[in-house]
From TrEMBL, chain A:
TM region positions: 27-45, 52-69, 75-95, 107-129, 135-158, 185-203, 234-258, 270-295, 307-332, 353-375, 395-412
GO molecular function terms listed in the Swiss-Prot or TrEMBL record: branched-chain amino acid transmembrane transporter activity
Topology class, membrane: Multi-pass membrane protein
Protein name: Branched-chain amino acid ABC transporter permease
Species per Swiss-Prot/TrEMBL record: Sedimentitalea arenosa
Cellular compartments annotated: Cell membrane
Keyword Cell wall biogenesis/degradation among UniProt keywords: no
Keywords for the protein's UniProt record, in alphabetical order: Cell membrane, Membrane, Transmembrane, Transmembrane helix
GO CC list: plasma membrane
UniProt keyword Transmembrane present: yes
From TrEMBL, chain B:
Natural source organism: Sedimentitalea arenosa
Top-level taxon in the UniProt lineage: Bacteria
Family to which this protein belongs: Belongs to the binding-protein-dependent transport system permease family. LivHM subfamily.
Name of the protein described by the UniProt record: Branched-chain amino acid ABC transporter permease
GO MF entries: transmembrane transporter activity
Keywords: Amino-acid transport, Cell membrane, Membrane, Transmembrane, Transmembrane helix, Transport
Length: 434, 318
């Protein structure tokens, strides 16, 4: 690590401090991710993969917008789906206003979605950003519930129970592209993903983004410096509302239908889960969270009815044991790599984590079998688990699952001290010191 | 006039039920500064446990045992979950209880399935207590009112008149001082958390037969409980009582009297537009009070937060 890159708060070196704050922009990750987005559809060509990727990209935009509040501003919102939903509903109305829509290229539509989200965020933010913490969380929940409930009543805008739908192809053709095919929509969404991610990253580097961090950590101190904590929160809130609206517009473009489900507390809860799972402490955390969660959702929900249960367990475990989320876990390993000792960790990791994974799979097998015994139709004793079909009411599978689980956890437990020791060794500065 | 009396009783039942939940929630909040999102989930667990116990031992043992089990579980959550997360700060604590609420709902679905449980009013209480102008009042409602009021009085007595209550109150405001006087403050916190969740459990036991015992019951009541304590002022027991009764009566009256928006607007001199079908405000014109009864608490909360952000009885700096 060179001297200049080191983040410092040394007051005698203001130039260096500035450098740490605003100039550590590296282009490489952006170019790499842009390239990956470009070639992904060439690797995974079938339609269902593109559908999953579209959903993933929309979730990433939404999760990043959410993290502008939670991670960077320290505001916990339980009703953020409302801004995405209203942005989406607004776009749907634009799509249905055929006179105007036929003069508007579809790729510009998310701007309007963002403005809808931002407008609503301005109204709500005018009274909700007065304080952070619990009060803010409560207001966000109340407003979220209120608007979700209104969506059933106000049929003219929200379309009642069946929602509203539109057709994206009526827009002005964009360089001859009419967005009939899924792949064209993919590139639109991927383009907006890059644009909004870059804008959100740049926002976090502006003075106002930096002040959002300061207000998150110590609002009183920020106020003594002459900044109004409330207005700093307000600006974070409306920009977050903007990008949530963009995500909602992308949803409208991709699915061409919006219902009450896009607004309700459940989807607000999901985005909180996604963001926290990925890690709120780093900019790229929500991206990892969105990718992992979408994969989990699509792959696991095909395999088991209980996927929401597993997601809940994973979420609670993350909050309790890894509050930094997946991003935090990844970043924990940076020092070991810097010291060039990361390979010390490989064997202990394999020896401990592999049995742990087997143990967890065994445990989930027990859970699935219990579920099958309790809830399957009477007389239906056969179940398929891990590519094997067996009778869930006989003893043998239970004994196998129990033994595998117990042995795996015993091995994990036995090898854990070794892993901890290797961890300490790998994180010790070569030549002494911690 | 008689209908007013019937609605007053119905609203009182709803309000007191809300109060049993919000009392525990507000106590826990003033103690730890953390809002327990899973509070309504403990209410649901109370109902399910009571149902399971009532299958074998009858309703009354359920009423006795289920809140105890829920309270012990609540204390366990505080001891092994919340205390661990506490070191990370307030926001992770909130997120933890939120995750717990999700998990408990999934767990209940895992054990009991997605359907409503046949948890019914006990035979002893299944009769009409009295009738007001042809509207019969079931004895079970009177029983619910009786239970809630006696719990409220008991809680008030313990908190204000006994030594334990004094220590709890002192620990709420000056935990460090109380600790240095030799009291085990973490134990007090755990106890209060357990009692708060047990109260939610009681509410679940007695509400289960009336409102239905199904996996969504926590979600239905959960957010209303938060609205209640925000309106009442976070951390204020009296505020929780007033707000609960207020919400109970408002929603009951809005549901039983069919007030139409059209009549109100006509009453203040706005004429109904002739082309109502195509009017952009058509949904506003056709609005009726039973339709919006369930969102009235939220509207009330938003108004309170705009004009009196610390709630009806809250302290200004809270």
């Amino acid at each position: 690590m060179s001297e200049q890159d080191q983040i410092t708060t040394d007051p005698t070196k203001p130039a260096q401090r500035m450098r740490a704050g605003s100039m550590t922009l590296s282009l490489t990750p952006w170019l790499v991710s842009g390239f990956v987005l470009l070639i992904l559809p060439l690797v995974f060509t079938n339609n269902s993969a593109i559908t999953i990727m579209n959903q993933m990209a929309i979730t990433i935009v939404f999760a990043l917008a959410y993290n502008m509040l939670l991670g960077q501003g320290g505001m916990l919102s339980f009703g953020h789906a409302v801004y995405a939903g209203v942005g989406g509903f607004g776009c749907m109305h634009i799509m249905n206003a055929s006179d105007f829509f036929s003069t508007l290229p579809l790729p510009l539509l998310p701007v309007f979605g963002g403005l809808f989200g931002m407008a609503l965020a301005m109204i709500v933010g005018s009274f909700s950003t007065r304080s952070a913490g619990t009060v803010f969380a409560m207001i966000s929940l109340g407003v979220g519930e209120l608007i979700a409930a209104c969506s059933i009543i106000i049929v003219a805008f929200f379309g009642g129970e069946e929602g509203i739908s539109g057709d994206r192809t009526y827009g002005l053709p964009f360089f001859g592209v009419e967005f009939l095919k899924q792949i064209e929509v993919y590139y639109l969404i991927a383009g907006w993903l890059m644009i909004s991610a870059a804008l959100m990253y740049l926002f976090s580097r502006t003075p106002i983004g930096r002040m959002a961090n300061a207000v998150r950590d110590n609002p009183e101190r920020a106020e003594f410096l002459g900044y109004s904590a409330r207005w700093v929160r307000f600006y974070s809130f409306i920009f977050s509302g903007f990008f949530a609206g963009v995500a909602g517009a992308l949803f409208a473009i991709n699915y061409e239908i919006l219902t009450e489900e896009n607004l309700n507390t459940a989807s607000s809860g999901v985005i909180l889960l996604v963001t926290f799972l990925g890690g709120v402490g780093f900019f790229f955390g929500p991206i990892i969270g969105a990718i992992a969660f979408t994969l989990l959702q699509t792959v696991l929900s095909l395999q088991t009815e209980l996927w929401a249960f597993y997601a809940g367990v994973l979420f609670v475990a993350t909050v309790m044991f890894f509050p930094g989320g997946l991003a935090g876990l990844i970043m924990m390993h940076v020092p070991a790599f810097k010291f060039g000792k990361a390979r010390l960790l490989l064997m202990p990791y394999l020896k401990t984590l592999l049995p742990a994974v087997i143990g967890i799979l065994g445990l989930s097998a027990l859970v699935e079998m219990t579920f099958h015994v309790r809830h399957a139709a009477t007389g239906e004793n056969e179940m398929t688990l891990f590519w094997t079909t067996f009778d869930s009411h006989s003893f043998l599978p239970w004994i196998i699952a129990l033994v595998v689980t117990a042995v795996a956890f015993w091995v994990t437990r036995r090898n854990t001290p070794e892993m901890v020791e290797a961890w300490h060794k790998a994180n010790t500065f070569p030549g002494g010191g911690a | 006039m008689e209908l007013v009396l019937v609605n007053l009783i119905d609203g009182l039942v709803t309000g007191l039920l809300l109060f049993m939940l919000s009392a525990g929630l507000t106590l826990i909040f003033s103690m730890m500064g953390v809002l327990n999102f899973a509070h309504a989930s403990f209410y649901m667990l109370g109902a399910y446990f009571a149902y399971q116990i009532s299958l074998g031992l009858g309703f009354w043992m359920g009423l006795l045992l289920a809140p105890l089990i829920v309270g012990v579980m609540g204390a366990g959550v505080e001891r092994y979950g919340l205390r661990r997360v506490h070191q990370y700060g307030h926001v992770p604590e909130l997120i933890f209880t939120f995750g717990l609420a999700l998990l408990i709902e999934e767990l209940v679905q895992f054990i009991w399935g997605k359907n409503q449980m046949p948890y019914d009013i006990p035979e002893v209480l299944n009769f009409t207590a009295f009738a007001i102008a042809g509207n019969s009042i079931p004895a079970y409602k009177i029983f619910m009112i009786f239970i809630s009021i006696s719990i409220f009085i008991g809680l008030l007595y313990i908190l204000t008149k006994t030594r334990v209550g004094m220590i709890i109150q002192a620990a709420l405001s000056y935990p460090r001082t109380v600790e240095s006087l030799g009291h085990n403050v973490p134990l007090i916190f755990m106890g209060v958390f357990g009692v708060g969740t047990a109260l939610a459990g009681v509410a679940g036991v007695i509400a289960g037969p009336v409102l239905g015992t199904f996996p969504g019951m926590a979600f239905v009541l959960g957010s209303i409980v938060f609205v209640t304590i925000v309106i009442g002022g976070l951390g204020s027991l009296w505020g929780a009582l007033v707000a609960s009764l207020l919400i109970g009566w408002i929603t009951t009256f809005a549901k039983s009297y069919n007030v139409r928006m059209e009549d109100i607007l006509n009453g203040i001199g706005i004429v109904t537009p002739s082309d109502l079908e195509d009017n952009i405000f058509r949904d506003l014109w056709t609005l009726t009070s039973p339709q919006i009864a369930d969102i009235l608490p939220y509207i009330l909360m938003v108004l309170i937060l705009i004009f009196r952000p610390y709630g009806l009885f809250g302290k200004r700096d809270a």
